[in-house]
Amino acid sequence: MSRIAAFGIALGAAAACLAAESSRPHIVFVTGDDEYRSEYTMPALGRILEAQHGFRVSVAMAKPTPQSNKNIEGLEALETADMAVFYLRWRELPPEQMRRILAFVESGKPMAGLRTSTHAFRYPKGAEFEKWNDGFGRDIFGQRWLRHHGHTSTTAVTLVKEQSGHPILRGVAPSFNVRSWLYVVNPLEGDCVPLAMGRAVNPQTEDAGPQPVAWTKTYRGARVFFTTMGHPEDFQVESFRRLLVNGILWAAGKDIPPGGAKAAFVGEFSPPPSGVPKRQ
What we know:
This protein is α/β, with parallel strands linked by helices. It has helices spanning 3-23, 38-53, 95-105, 132-141, 238-251, and strands at 26-32, 56-62, 72-73, 83-88, 111-114, 147-148, 154-159, 175-178, 183-184, 193-201, 211-219, 222-227.
């Protein structure tokens, strides 16, 4: 075989690999949380989706540390994203970064969110993006920040029986426990459909009764999945991981197997404990 022919074959193979890569749905994780270790949990979730479900994954992170609430690097990936997953807490991003996020949000593409994304932003009064302090959680995901039941409490989760046939619940145990302290979210805003309810175990504050902990919604015609769970210890619970993977697949319009999506960890997962350090 001539060198020219060999080069042509190699070039063709490279082009085929590039085409295959670009055809995979692109999911972008937007992280910026200084309490629940999303800088560990979201890459771990991304590895599951990439290795077991055919996604191409990008992760945008707060830099230089998770406490840096005015900078997220990698948001340019949203320009080619087919879906975004948000795990944010009280960010005050510069205009060019916030506009990248809002451009995706308003594009009519599917989204998912976790826990503190009910209070993703905290801009000062009168700031250009102040309305998104409450609006991001309320309008896009179904509720803004209200309160929780205290850091030493936990949550007992039960699936909503009326939604037992929903594909997101495939392979998820009818009941399980998570470390996340229960968020108060009732009444949800918009067209939310609760899939799982939580009950506070040993609440430190007034018990608000059962609250939705996972639900579906739509925004700009696109599917949205949200959960108020997301403590790093929650990810050790297989049913929670499967619920989350199923929710992302559903939002992205992907088929979910009858027994639920594969949700085993890919590689090591050992995040530090939760907690809020001093911001930088």
